[in-house]
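Hello again, I could really use a second opinion on something today. I've been staring at a protein lately and its backbone has me curious. Can you walk me through what the C-alpha cells say about the fold? Take your time with it, there's no hurry, and the full record follows here:
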Amino acid sequence: MKAVLIKNANIVNEGKIIKGDVLVQDGRIAEISETISAKSADTKVIDADGSYLLPGMIDDQVHFREPGLTHKATIETESKAAVAGGITSFIEMPNTVPQATTIELLEEKFDIAAKTSWANYSFMFGGTNDNLDEILKVDPQKVAGLKLFLGSSTGNMLVDDPKILEEIFSKTKLLISAHCEDETTIKNNLEKYKAEYGEDIPIELHPKIRSEEACYISSSNAIKLAQKTGARLHVFHLSTEKETHLFSNKKPLAEKKITAEVCIHHLWFTEEDYKTKGSKIKWNPAVKTEKDRDGLLKALLDDRIDVIATDHAPHSLEEKNNKYLNAPSGGPLVQHALVALLEMHHRGKISLEKIVEKFAHNPAILFQIKDRGYIRKGYKADLVLVDLNSPWTVKKENLLYKCGWSPFEGTIFKSRVTHTLVNGVVVYENSKFPNKSNPERLTFNR
C-alpha cells in the first residue's frame, strides 16, 4: 500500500488545532509531527496548504436501503456520497427488506458491504416483539448494537409489548439505540387533522402530528426503563428542546449509561422551512420550532447531547412529491452533513474542535469502536481534509445520491471536502474518486 504524507495541515484533534504533517503507512497513522519528510520516492505527498485535517466522521445512523429498496439507494451509492462528504465509517439501520432481524439476514448485509462499500461499515441488529432469542446470539464485538423502534416503524419492527421490551432491556448486552415517538399520541393527532382536512393535510402540520409530546413521552419512558433495568441506552435523533433536559452532562461520555444524538436536519431547518422545502424536509421525528433547534444546539454544546449523525434516509423524488399522507419521511444527507456543520462554524455557532468531538471522537467512544475516530499514531488512517474558503453551490449536477435530490439544493457552502482517506487510501480527491477504497467491518472494544 502506497504511503501518504499530508503536509502543512491544521490538524483538528482532541480539542486542539496544531500545525503539522501526518504520515500514513500500511493503512495506519505512522507519524504526527511539526515536519515530516517523505520516506520513499513513491510516497504520495498532499500539500494541505493550511487546510484543516480532521479524523474521518463516523455516522452512527444511516439508512442505505439495501437489500430490497435499491430503487432509493444502495450501500455502494450512498457510501460513495458519504466519503465525498468526509464520512469514513457508518452504522446502518435494520429496516430494509427483508429486515435484519436474524443473524443470517444481518450477515447478508455485511456481505454486501464487504463487496461494494466505499466506507467502513457496521449494521444495527433489529429488535421485534418476537426475536429475543436471535438478539441474544449477536456478538457485541462484531455488531454495532440493537435498534429498537419505540414508535414509528416499518414492517413488524415496532416493539410495543411492555413485557417483551423490559425483557430485551434486561437481557441484552448490546448497546440499545432507540427511535422514540409515542405511537398513540401520533395516531390521535393524525385523526384530529384528518377530521379537519381529510386526505389533504398541509405538510406544515407534520410537527404538530409528530409532536413534542409524542417525542417526550417515548423518550422519557425509554429512559425510565433503562434506569430500571441497567440497560445501555442511546436515544436517536432528538428533535425537541424539552427532551434535552432528560439527559445529563455530569459524567464523561465513556461513563454514561444513557446518551443522546442530534441530526443535521434538526440543527439546520425549522418549521418555517416547510413553506419552501415541503416534504423534502419531512422526517420522523419532525423538524420543529426555532426554539427546538436552538435548544438542541445548546444541549449539544454543553454535552447533554453526545453525538451528531445524519439519519440519512433517501427516497425517490417521485415518492417524496406525494401529498402529506403518502410522502415518506426521510432524506439524503451524508454528502452535505460535514459542510453544513462547517457552515454553522462560519456563522459562529460551533467550533471546529466541537464538530470533530461530536461527529468523530464521540461516536468512537460511545460505540467503543476500535482504532478509529482520532488522529493518533497507530490508529486507522481515516482522514478528511477540508478547505474552509472554497465556496460552492449544491446542484443536481454535483449530487452523488442515487435518489438525485437534496434538501440543500441551491445552498452555497463556504467549505468543501478536498480529500478523504479510508484506511490510508485516498478514495476522494478534488471531486474525483482516484482509488477504490479498502473498507473494513468495524470492530468494537467490548
User: Anything to note?
Assistant: The mean pLDDT is 96.
